[in-house]
């Protein structure tokens, strides 16, 4: 029997029995972890209130064996709140749907339990903090998170040089399958011709240029979101259920 301590973001919860839950977290040191939290569905459980989606928590686990992720699910025995991001997210529909899509994306990009994914974890913490504070439009925060998640997992799209031959930009065509913008000579079937403003917005979101992103017109933001969604679905090989509810 071993004790483990880590901090993480609660991604989702599932009912177990009459009073328990299975908690899925993205942790700093152990990647994605599923654990059983006993008694948290009882109305007087303060422990359960800390283990809700969007919560940033310091958690203690009790596992059978020397590894946290093993044959059975570990027990979540203690939890202390680091930041309750849910309070600034769940009361606003746009923030809530964007945040839910972020949680689902983080879970999809960490499909092997117990494998550290520090960059993805830090991206999620920063994204939820920004979303909860209302510093930028929720759909822009979401698109920035999706683009950066793709980048840290090795799928960074190109928004300047041709993704196929490297021809310096600007290049006017965009191909999901090719990895971003492409030149006329490399154009493939299925390529689209997005506006330069939409490409500029996506580049700004990827690099953190919020001054440019915040000044973008709504029509270009919607166009950019469509490109991000298509690119994400291509690399995940199936869509995110939560994206259909996101306001643009």
Automatic annotation (TrEMBL):
Asked whether the keyword Oxidoreductase is assigned, the reply is no
Where are its TM segments located?
A: none
> Which top-rank group of organisms is this from?
Bacteria
**UniProt key word DNA repair:** yes
Provide this UniProt record's keywords sorted from A to Z: DNA damage, DNA recombination, DNA repair
All copies of domain DNA replication/recombination mediator RecO N-terminal, residue ranges: 1-68
Q: Give the protein's function.
A: Involved in DNA repair and RecF pathway recombination.
The entry sums up its family as follows: Belongs to the RecO family.
* Listed PANTHER family: DNA REPAIR PROTEIN RECO
Entry protein name: DNA repair protein RecO
What organism does the record attribute this protein to?
A: Streptomyces siderophoricus
Q: What is the lineage of its organism?
A: Bacteria, Bacillati, Actinomycetota, Actinomycetes, Kitasatosporales
Q: Which gene encodes it?
A: recO
């Amino acid at each position: 029997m071993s004790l483990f301590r880590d901090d993480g973001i609660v991604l989702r919860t599932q009912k177990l029995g009459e009073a328990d839950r299975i908690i899925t977290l993205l942790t700093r040191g152990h990647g994605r972890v599923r654990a059983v939290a006993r008694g948290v569905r009882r109305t007087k459980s303060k422990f359960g209130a800390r283990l809700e989606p969007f919560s940033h928590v310091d958690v203690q686990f009790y596992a059978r064996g020397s590894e946290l992720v093993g044959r059975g699910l570990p027990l979540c025995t203690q939890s202390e709140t680091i930041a309750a991001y849910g309070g600034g997210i769940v009361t606003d529909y746009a923030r809530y749907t964007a945040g839910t899509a972020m949680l689902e994306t983080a879970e999809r990009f960490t499909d092997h339990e117990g494998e550290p994914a520090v960059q993805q974890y830090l991206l999620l913490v920063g994204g939820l903090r920004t979303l909860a504070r209302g510093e930028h439009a929720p759909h822009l925060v979401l698109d920035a998170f999706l683009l950066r998640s793709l980048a840290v997992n090795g799928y960074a799209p190109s928004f300047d040089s041709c993704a196929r031959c490297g021809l310096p930009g600007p290049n006017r065509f965009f191909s999901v399958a090719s990895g971003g913008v492409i030149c006329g000579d490399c154009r493939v079937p299925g390529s689209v011709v997005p506006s330069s403003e939409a490409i500029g917005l996506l580049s700004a979101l990827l690099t953190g240029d919020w001054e440019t992103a915040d000044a973008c017109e709504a029509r270009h933001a919607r166009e950019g979101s469509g490109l991000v969604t298509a690119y994400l679905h291509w690399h995940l090989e199936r869509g995110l259920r939560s994206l259909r509810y996101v306001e643009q």
